[in-house]
Write a structure and sequence with these properties.
elongated, mainly alpha, 153 residues
């Protein structure tokens, strides 16, 4: 009976981890793309068909990739934390803070995109290009915390 339970727990962990990694990849890819879309959007003439196409691309990226991915990242991640009892570990707490920050970053990006589509004030393209690096820097810290930090706990 214990062997069957251990096998079930191991399989649950493996599937949760696979799902988490898959949707993290989708989420981070979307976070890399969205600021770049905004740069191209802002370079299009206001009111043009090109601008309208960028607005639609941004909306689809948010609706089809980013929103489902962030939800599934959180779902699989919290399930993994529960299954592994990761809550008390420092590496997990650090990861959680960074994932919360990335989630807030996505929220800000979505809000900016909606304001941009409505003709609101624009951020210069250089700033958006620099902001494009935020997910990559966060991933470096998150992966280091999980892989290296977990090895020491």
């Amino acid at each position: 009976m214990i062997d069957a339970l251990n096998w079930a727990l191991a399989m649950t962990y493996a599937w949760l981890k696979a799902g988490h990694i898959i949707f993290v990849i989708f989420w981070i890819a979307g976070l890399f793309m969205l600021p770049r879309f905004y740069v191209y959007h802002q370079e299009a003439p206001e009111g043009s068909d090109e601008e309208k196409r960028w607005i639609e691309r941004e909306r689809k990226l948010r609706r089809i990739i980013l929103t489902p991915a962030i939800g599934l990242v959180w779902l699989f991640g919290l399930a993994l934390a529960y299954v592994t009892s990761a809550w008390a570990h420092g590496w997990f707490q650090g990861k959680l803070v960074l994932v919360l920050a990335l989630s807030a970053y996505q929220g800000w990006l979505v809000g900016y995109g909606k304001r941009l589509a409505a003709g609101g004030p624009r951020i210069d393209g250089r700033t958006l290009r620099l902001m494009n690096e935020i997910p990559g820097i966060a991933v470096i810290f998150i992966v280091t915390l999980v892989v290296v930090g977990r090895a020491y706990s």
